[in-house]
Amino acid sequence: MRYPKFLPKNGTIGFVAPSFGCSTEPYRTAFLNAQKKWTDLGYRLDLGPNCYEGSGIGISNTPELCAQELMEYYQSDRNACLISCGGGELMCEILEHMDFGKLKTAAPKWYMGYSDNTNFTFLLTTLCDTASIYGPCAATFGMEPWHESLMDTMRLLTGEQLEVYGYDRWEIESRKDETNPLAPYNLTEQKILRRFPDQDTEFSGRLLGGCVDCLVNLLGTEFDGVQAFAEKYREDGVIWFLECCDLNVMAIRRAMWQMEHAGWFRFVKGFLIGRPAVYGQEIMGMDQYRAVLGILEQYHVPVIMDADIGHLPPMMPLITGSLATVSVRENELSVRMRME
C-alpha cells in the first residue's frame, strides 16, 4: 500500500470539484469561511477551476473537465493534499476520462471526500494501491465552531493522530441552509452502537469501503478491482466500512446481496456500518438492521452498526487502505490505523 506524505505545517491544501462544486448557498459561503479558517491556521490554498462551477449535470462541470482538473491537481507539486469541494450525483461519469495508470505511478497524495467521492477514494485504493481518506468535504469546514470530528480530521491529515473514536451525539436534521450557512451540527441524537454479536470485540484488517450507492454502481465494471485487492491482502483481511445515502431499506438489502454474490466479502474480518441517510425506515417488516444482517450474518464476523460514518454526522475520518484495528467496548468505538 502506498501512503502519501502528510500535510506539513504551513503547507498548501488543494481543492477540486470532481463532484458538486460550491456554486450555490449554503455551500459557497461555508467554503469561503473554511478557506479563512485554514489560512488563519497558516495553510496556503490552491483552488481548482471547478470549485465554484455549477454548469455540470450532477457534478460541477462536464465529465471531461472534472477529470482534467482532478488529474492535473493530483499530479501537481503546487499542493500537498486534495480536499473535494463536495459530494454530488454523477462523479462516476468522469472515470472513463481518468488515467488510472498515470495515477498509479504518480507520487501518492492524500485525497479526501465522502459520498459521491467514493468514486475516487475507493478506486485510488483498489486500482492504484494508494491510501485515501474517507472524510468530510471542504465546505463542512466552514461551520462555526468546528466540531471535534473536524479537528480529528485535520490531525489525521497532518499525521498527528492515527486513531479516531466515535462521538457522543449525532445529527438527524441539519440547521444549515441558505440563511444559516455556517451552522454547526445539530446534535440532538444520542449515539447507540448496535453490535452483532452483542459483545465487546476487537478485530483487524485493511479498511475498505465508502458510500454503498456508489459502490454497487462500480461493481462489475472495468473499474471493479475488489477481487484482486482482496486477494493481494488476504493475509490481512478486509474491514468493510459501508454507509448509504439515497437507498431505502430494500435497496440496501439488494446492494448487500449484490456485493456478497460478486465475491466482494471474501476474507472479511468485520463490518462497520454507518447510519443510513434514510434513517429509521421500515418496509414490510424490513428495517435498516435486518437489511444488512440478513446478508452479512453468514460471515460470522463482527457487524457494528450506527457507527459515525457518512451522511448523518459527525463522521470519523478513515484511511482507506490502511491496516486498522477496530475496538468496541460497550458503546465506545475506536479505529487505530497503521501505515503498513
From TrEMBL:
Span of domain LD-carboxypeptidase N-terminal: 13-135
Matches recorded under Gene3D superfamilies: Class I glutamine amidotransferase-like, LD-carboxypeptidase A C-terminal domain-like
Any Pfam family: Peptidase_S66C
Keywords: Hydrolase
InterPro entries: Carboxypeptidase_A_C_sf, Class_I_gatase-like, LdcA_N, Peptidase_S66_N, Peptidase_S66C, S66_fam
Ranges for domain LD-carboxypeptidase C-terminal: 204-326
Chain segments annotated as coiled-coil in the UniProt record: none
Record bears the keyword Hydrolase: yes
Hydrolase in keyword set: yes
Positions of the catalytic residues: S115, E243, H311
GO molecular function: hydrolase activity
Annotated family: Belongs to the peptidase S66 family.
Annotated protein name in UniProt: LD-carboxypeptidase
Organism: Candidatus Fusicatenibacter merdavium
